[in-house]
Amino acid sequence: MIMKVLLVLFAIAGCFGQDDFANLQEMLDHNVERYKLIGVDVGAFSANGEWLLRGQSGERVYQEGTPISDKDMFIMGSAGKSMTSTMAARVVAQGYINWNTTTKEIFHDTGLFDVHESYWPSTLEQFLSHGSGAPGLDVVVEDYYDMVDYIFNRTSWEADFDNRPARVFLSKTLLENEVTVPQGTYLYSIGGFTVAGTMLELATGKTYEQLMMEELFLPLGMDGCGFGPTTTDPSLPPVQPWGHLGDQWGVNIAPVTPGPYANVASPMIPDGGLHCNLDSWNNYLSMHLREDEDFLPKDIWEYIHNPITQHFYGFGWMFDSSNPLIGQTLNHGGTDGHNFAQCFLIPRLGVGINIGMNNAGVMSQGSLQGVGFGKTLEWIGTHLLGKETGAELRKIAEETMYDDSLPH
After folding, report:
1. 8 A C-beta contact, residue 180 and residue 133
2. What is the number of other CB atoms lying within 10 angstroms of the CB of residue 161?
3. 152: exposed, middle or buried (Cβ count in 10 Å: 0-12, 13-18, 19+)
4. How many Cβ atoms from other residues are within 10 Å of residue 156's Cβ?
5. What dihedral angle (degrees, nearest 10) is formed by the CA atoms of 360, 126, 284, 239?
């Protein structure tokens, strides 16, 4: 009798735990509710930008009721680092600056400010590849809190606001001190991409925002992308998804009210201050899959699609070639602490995946939301490319996302 009861209980548990959903929407609705994902927009696409899978589930604000839409924008965080790098590639292609242009040449030799001698060899491509010697989160929080206060006090999301003076201040603060690690050593930097952005501003005489519009957003039709928060409007019903904070178990969840200081400081947009909807993000990512030579020369495409630092990181991408079945993958996640975005490119198969979420619980190892994200990604990969590939994508994401911890 006891054995029969146990068998029935195991059968019931199996029904509740099964992942054999009839379609993408059924899977998303289940995972959003079961794993407290709040709101999710997800897609898989081909190299020509065609959606192979696309769906949304959940709401903009937890338990408020306004549903996620297919035009909603999500915070890219560090998933936008490759966008900064791709814009830089266009500037390099036009001859304004070189990949190996150094901080000594841009800042020190021009008399803008004194650069510590240990930073003299640090190059544009190293700042775009976490190999410049710039400090990580721990050092920035401990030693550069005055700089952090300064850039937040000079934050503005007005369209014509000039962030260049604050970016020069940030660059000076970091570069007047000794490197944290030797050049070529991988260290996930805080501010390194902003130093690169400052180098590009000085080389072109244009703001980072101008360069992003002229070299990326306008040419690729990325009208669903922009700078900073998706909205600063705190009214309800929400006009865009709000970020959310929560505990590891998804029991206590709190929305983060939009405002000018709810995300990154505006001078640090190059590090992680972009937002996009999935359609515009697709326009950008699919361009990388097909390597359109009208957009970038072939040699530059090849260059930015290979790692620079320690054989696995370069130009805003984490590279993985461990699985011969799918070949090299390019991926990156990003967060501001209460939103999350993730993308994958599989060039050999000509497909990509992008996901936007209005919670960042996935960044906490072992969290309920992290399990839900992993299951969602694995289901998409499995139904798109097969079971082994789905499991591999989930494994890659879980191994790399913790290098992208708050507040990159």
Report:
1. yes
2. 14
3. middle
4. 15
5. 40
Cα–Cα–Cα angle for 307, 309, 314, rounded to 5 degrees: 45
Instruction: Give the C-alpha separation, 238 to 46, whole Å.
Output: 32
Distance CA 196, CA 383 (A): 39
Question: Are 128 and 313 spatial neighbours (Cβ–Cβ below 8 Å)?
Answer: no
The b-or-e profile of 61-92 (16+ CB within 10 A means b, else e) is bbeeebebeeebbbbbbbbbbbbbbbbbbbbb
Q: CA 48, 40, 327, 312: dihedral to nearest 10 degrees?
A: 110
Q: What three-state secondary structure class fits 80?
A: helix
Whether the CB-CB separation of 352 and 346 falls below 8 Å is answered with: yes
Cα angle 205, 210, 212; round to 5: 120
Whole-angstrom Cα distance, residue 238 to residue 398?
31
For residue range 237-283, what is the model confidence (pLDDT) as tens digits? 999 999 999 999 999 999 999 999 999 999 999 999 999 999 999 99
Tell me what the mean pLDDT of segment 197-226 comes to.
Answer: 98
CA distance 221 to 219: 6
- Region 345-368 average pLDDT: 93
Given the structure tokens 């929305």, which residue do they identify?
255
Please state the φ and ψ torsions of residue 405, each to the nearest 5 degrees: -80, 160
Alpha-carbon gap, residue 262 to 283, rounded angstroms: 27
For residue 407, is the peptide bond before it cis, meaning its omega torsion is within 30 degrees of 0?
yes
CA atoms within 13 A on the CB side of 125: 18
b/e burial code for range 296-306 (CB count within 10 A of at least 16 → b)? beeebbebbbe
- Would you tell me how many other CB atoms lie within 10 Å of the CB of residue 269? 27
What number of residues does the chain have? Answer: 408
Beta strands in 73-115 (DSSP E): 73-75
Measured distance CA(403)–CA(332) in Å, rounded? 10
Model-level pTM?
0.92
How far from each other are the two terminal CA atoms of the chain, in whole angstroms? 56
Measured CA angle at 93 (ends 88, 97), to 5 deg:
65
